[in-house]
Each structure stands twice: as structure tokens, then as C-alpha cells.
Amino acid sequence: MALSKRRRTQVLRVVQYVVLVAVVVALALLIDWQQVRRGFLDADAAARLFPGVILTGLKNTVIYAALGFAVGLALGLVLALMRMSSVGPYRWLATAYIEFFRGVPALLVFIAFGFGVPLAFQLRFDTYSTVALSLGLVGAAYMAETIRAGIQAVPKGQVEAARSLGMPAGMALFTIVIPQAFRIILPPLTNELILLTKDSSLVYLLGVARDEYELTKIGREALNVSPNLTPILVAGLCYLIITIPLSQLSRYLERRTGGKRISSPESAGLEVKA
């Protein structure tokens, strides 16, 4: 007797669940849990990380990510406006910057500002300035495209209505268009903050002082004296303390904005006079 389409879907789903449970049970039986405990769940090694992993590592990771995000957001807004400008050189400079920093690994940017620039120009940056510049310059390239898409997603009628009331183009842009654009792009900007939080792990390259350690540096240092990966697991869990609430915030903001997604930068044609 032929099954209906709905019945076939239900049977297929049950089969998938059975297979999944069988795989999980097989893995649970095959894994050497004593070895897992020795390799990843050493309570003594985890206890030695506290309270430093929270009071120093977690705190500095949040500070580094916030500094990079602030620099990236400010520079990204400028780049987005330059990218949309009617002045050719502005567009070319912004495009070159965005393509360069989107194509270069953040690791190289950290090395450049941590070692290359100080050696070449005899300049000295403290750790916070180096991190803010490195994360900010890379983040700005991505945020610029996000902001540009958000601006272009605002209906052009908003600008036309403001101009018909005699409002200057610049005032219409900063008082009407950009505030609406930021409401649209809050979820993707939150995702950018998550990426910067993870990229802050590259600070370990800079040879920072102990009170400037972030989570990855603390985990690596503890790994040198610990015969297992427990310190890395603890550091990873601390990253989740930051990133999971940010992910939930991103979903909440997306619901608040009605689930509206920004269009691609090429799909709208709002032009900003520079």
C-alpha cells in the first residue's frame, strides 16, 4: 500500500533519528572516557587558571574586541561614504583599502603593527593601541561594506522627501538615512563584533605583559606546564561566555527589525555627494 507524502516524510524522519542515536551510542561505547578525562578534564589544571582567566583574560579580551570594534566602526562609516561618493578618487581609495584589508590575513596586520611599523619608523605603540589599530583596520574593511549596504537599503523616497522640504543633502544623510541604516545593520554588526572577539586571540603574538594577557595567551601559557588540553578547553569556554550572548543579541535585534536583511551593495543606487 503506497504511503502518502506526509507519511513518507514522517518515516524518513524516524529513520534519521534512529541512525543518529545509533551513531551516538556507538561513539559513546568506543571512546576511552578515562583518556578523555585525563586529556581534557583535569580539574586541578582548570582550577589553577582561576581567577586569572576571568579577571585578566576575559576582561582583556572584551577590552581588545571593544577597542577594535570602535575603531573599525568609525573608520568603516567613513569608508562607506567614500565608497558611495561621486568623487572618483574617494571611491578608488576606499575600494583599494577594502580589497586590501579583506584580502590580507589579520595575522599579518598584527605582525606589521607589532613589529614592522615600530622598526621601520621608530614608533612605539602600547598593547592597547596596537590591538585597536590592527583589529580596527581589518574590521573597518568589512564594516564599510555592511554600512554601505545598509545605507543603500534605506528607501530613496526618504531622501527625496527630505530634500523636497529644503533639507541639505548632508543633513538628510546624517539625520535620516544613517540612523535608519544602523537599525538595519545592527545584527550583522553584532556578528562583526563576534569575529573581532575571536581575532583578538592574535594578541599572543605581541609578547604582552602578564596583566595584558587575553584568553588564548593564558591558555597557551598554562599549556606549557600542563600535560593536557584542559587550559585550552577552559579558554574556549570563556570565549563562548562572550560570543553566545552576542549571538543571541544578534537574533533578538534581527527580530526587532522585522527580520529585514540588507540588500547587496550593488542592488541599490543611493549616491552620496562628497
Automatic annotation (TrEMBL):
Residues 58-250 form the ABC transmembrane type-1 domain. It comes from the Bacteria. It is a multi-pass membrane protein. Coiled coil: none annotated. The keyword Zinc does not apply. The keyword Phosphoprotein does not apply. It is found in: Cell membrane. The chain crosses the membrane at residues 12-31, 62-82, 103-121, 127-144, 165-186, 232-253. Keywords: Amino-acid transport, Cell membrane, Membrane, Transmembrane, Transmembrane helix, Transport. InterPro entries: AA_ABC_transptr_permease_3TM, ArtM/GltK/GlnP/TcyL/YhdX-like, MetI-like, MetI-like_sf. Belongs to the binding-protein-dependent transport system permease family. This is Polar amino acid transport system permease protein. It comes from Streptoalloteichus tenebrarius (strain ATCC 17920 / DSM 40477 / JCM 4838 / CBS 697.72 / NBRC 16177 / NCIMB 11028 / NRRL B-12390 / A12253. 1 / ISP 5477). The lineage of its organism: Bacteria, Bacillati, Actinomycetota, Actinomycetes, Pseudonocardiales.
